[in-house]
Amino acid sequence: MPSKELQSPTSEMVLLTPNTENPPSIAATPAAPKDKEALREGSAESDNSRVVMKKQLGLLEGVAIILGIIFGSGIFVSPKGVIREVESVGTSLVIWVLCGMLSMIGALCYAELGTAIPKSGGDYAYIFEAYGSLPAFLYLWDAMMIFVPTTNAIMGLTFASYVLQPFFADGCEIPKIALQLLAAATICFLTYLNSYYMKVTTKMQNIIMFTKIAALVMIIVVGLAWMLMGHTENFNQPFENTETDPGKLSVAFYSGIFSYAGWNYLNFMTEELRDPYRNLPRAIYISLPLVTGIYVLANMAYLAVLSGPEMIASNAIAVTFGDKILGNFSLIIPIMVAISAFGGLSVHIMTSSRMCFVGARNGHMPAILSHISVKSYTPLPSLAFLCLLSILMLVVSDVYVLITYSSIVESFFIMLSVSAVLYFRYKRPNMERPIKVSLWIPAVFVVVCAFLVVVPVYVAPFEVAMGLLITLIGIPFYYVGVVWQNKPKWVQHAIDSMTFTCQKLFLSAKEQKQD
User: Fold this and answer.
1) What are the Cα distances from residue 269, in Å, to 62, 125, 379?
2) What angle do CA 56, 60, 64 make, to 5 degrees?
3) Which of 80, 98, 116, 229 has the fewest CB atoms within 10 Å of its CB?
4) Closest CA relative to residue 225, chosen from 320, 321, 333
5) Where are the alpha helices (DSSP H) in 266-325?
């Protein structure tokens, strides 16, 4: 194959990007689109012969991505955070409803952002577009170093725990090394599947989505049947002993919000959606009301069968629920939890790799991470990079502490993303907006998010300080990697060699944009 110039990811900023005269590369011949409308609709004809990620996601796949992330294992394992803080059944259900409504408000803002800025990368892309390079880099830094790999590690460990538990007698602890090995194998397998079999992965996620919904509907039906049989004692005086401390109420609200986390993940893959101007908002409009309804009813079912103290004492609420009421069929619940964790991990691996890819395309990550496999048209280097980071996190003893440190920071960046709606209304009033929400919607969301960011400073100042420190550590890396472009020749040569070696290893090439 003749050699061609290996270009940098952007013309403006370069991070670890080859700049030799004529380094060889793997490339494909671009094909001109047949018409503008075909490109907008995401037809196969518009990009079949170019090295570019294909538009393989329709409405069903979009809904599966949102539900796959939100319906991870959390609703089955730990929805006790709310009732532990408020100490009353009625107030906990009210908070679940309010958290669902806030999530729907936020999702509407992301529908506007995703259609006005139809780029993959989600929050990173919107922060970059609105506030520039440094804030976007710091978000990417936190996401790639902490958010993404720790979440993958925790999901992998959750799946491993539920798979291995039946092989150990009650009271026997599963060896840590067994959990880590199975979690690592699962992460590697799903990374491989996402790298080479995109269609198989999306079909699997569709099936898992329906399985999760069926499991939650079963819990809801059993709980409602239990109440209809006269077991409503847990709902007598539902607001009695409600906690009124603002700090505890805010922590309860925080727990509820994070249980809904994931409604913005489809925005990470906007460029791979067929007709994103229709399918992105539709997927959001379908998913969020469905999630809110299921979450409220599932918690009502839990509270009907389990008392408040029983929920707080349980490490896996759905399993405790099943053991108490399903009898011999209770084995179904841990199987469903394992399937949910497996599906959630697959979706998270898929979506987060696109943020890494877009960051590299903007010059904020090593150039090789902006490459695409010429065989499977997936961001293979980014997938492999995040797989490696996730496996490293499995051996970090304080992985749960790390994600706690960063959760406040993540809330701040989500607030920053939604504030971009207000920013663009002021700075770019004539910007094309296929969807335009009322201004009170982003305003309310930003105010509530600001409250959720400020309150933890009072409740957990050490965790907030550690999250801030992790973020600030990224600033020197930004100036060395992004701002400093005139690097010594030996550094550039080493970067060139690394990039070309990885390019051959992954059989990857730079994305070929449409002329």
Assistant:
1) 9, 11, 12
2) 95
3) 229
4) 321
5) 276-305, 308-313, 317-325
Which two tokens mark 28?
């494909």
Assess contact for 190 and 198: CB atoms under 8 A. no
Tokens of 515: 């002329």
How far apart CA 492 and CA 231 sit, in angstroms, is 71
Q: Exposed, middle or buried, 164 (CB in 10 Å: 0-12/13-18/19+)?
A: middle
Convert 179-244 into a string of H (helix), E (strand) and C (coil): HHHHHHHHHHHHHHHHHHCHHHHHHHHHHHHHHHHHHHHHHHHHHHHHHHCCCCHHHCCCCCCCCC
pLDDT in tens, 340-364: 889 999 999 999 999 999 999 999 9
Contact between 253 and 95 (Cβ < 8 Å): yes
Structure tokens at 166: 């039946």
CA distance 115 to 5: 34
Q: Residue 239 class from Cβ within 10 Å (0-12 exposed, 13-18 middle, 19+ buried)?
A: exposed
